[in-house]
Structure formats: C-alpha cells, structure tokens
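<context>
A single protein, sequence plus fold
<entry> Chain with its tokenised backbone below
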Amino acid sequence: MANKGKRLRKAYEGVDQEQVHVLAEAIKLVRSKASAKFDETLEIALNLGVDPRHSDQMVRGVVSMPHGTGKNVRVAVFARDAKADEALAAGADKVGAEDLMEDMQAGNLPYDRVIATPDMMAVVGRLGKVLGPRGLMPNPKLGTVTPNVADAVKNAKAGQVEFRVEKAGIIHAGIGKASFDEAKLIENAQAFVDAIQKAKPTGAKGTYIKRVSVSSTMGPGIRVDTSELGTVAAASS
C-alpha cells in the first residue's frame, strides 16, 4: 500500500487537476505519467447533465473504436447448431445453450460481452439476475441479440465498446493502452465523445456534457477542454 501511495503521489507531481487541456495535450500528459510495469489502460470519463433514474435521460449504446482498445475481449455466445458453429469460427471464447446458462449460474462469468441469437432468449432470460447487474444481458438495441452472431463476435473482438451512464451521470470507457500512438488514442477518444453526443436523450436539459477527463490505470485524471471537443451542448430551449 505504501508503494502504491508513493507511486500515486509521484504521478500527481506537477499536475494541476483543475487546469483544462486540449485533448491532445491531456492524452500526452497522461501517457507521460503512465509509469507502471504493465501497459496501463487509458480511460475517458464524461460527466453528463442527465439523471438516468428518468427513462428519458438514459444514455446507452455502442461505439466501435477506430483503433480497438488493446484489450482481449472475452465473448460468450448463446446459440445452437449452425449458429453455434458460426460463433466459434468468428472467435467466440465460449458457445452453448442450457449448458452455458448452468455454467454462468454456477458463477463462471469471465466474459466481457454476452451475445445471443433471438431464439435463445428464453434460456438467457433466466440469467437476468446474474447478467443484468454486470451489464452483460444481451440486448437487441446494442446488437447483442442478433441472428448475425459472427459479425457481433468480430465487432466485440475488434474493439466495439458498450456504454451506459451510471447513477451519478458519469459515463466512461477505455480508449486504448499507454503504448498506443497518441493519434490513435485521440481518434478513439473523439469517436467515443461523438457517440455520446449522438446518444443525447430527449430529456436532457441545459449543458449535456459538463466535464471530461482522461486518466490511466495508475495515473492522475487530466481535465479536457470540452469546447475544443465540440461537446458543450447549448442550453435546450
């Protein structure tokens, strides 16, 4: 713990947490502070002017990162017969039906994405209390309930990211690794921000994207200039 605290103090040296940077500068600063022995993940976080307790203020969707996330995404697929074969051929880590359901009920859930063919939802539905709290429940709006399981698996593996605003109005996602080129991290971050803007709910009033910051796994959070991103929404009339 002492070592962790020492590393964190060192990471914050010379960082003004209230200073606002353009995105390129913020990412450069975060990368310069990523000094862990592993390849740290860079994350972008947005504070939104929404209250997700209201259905017309929920922000949820998917976005494909142009350069992937650098993360090995583990995908489970509920499918039978030919569709199961397609999912396996596309790179799914686990494919099954009732057997996969029972495995998940037993607590085996090392997955980042769960996909299902429409005919399997009767089986998947029994996992609501298991998958729901983890944000893993297949959903047709997110493309995770689909007959095109091969495409869904490939998209997940290629860096497609699901997003959902949390209770406090915060939404975040990994945009890559510290080892990524800055240009790729910038493009991934902008793609995520653009997706959040497009997902602006009808019930959002006033400033939609209020604050943006980027950080690494072990590093400080750096504030980003929202106007430079084109993210300051005009007050809704």
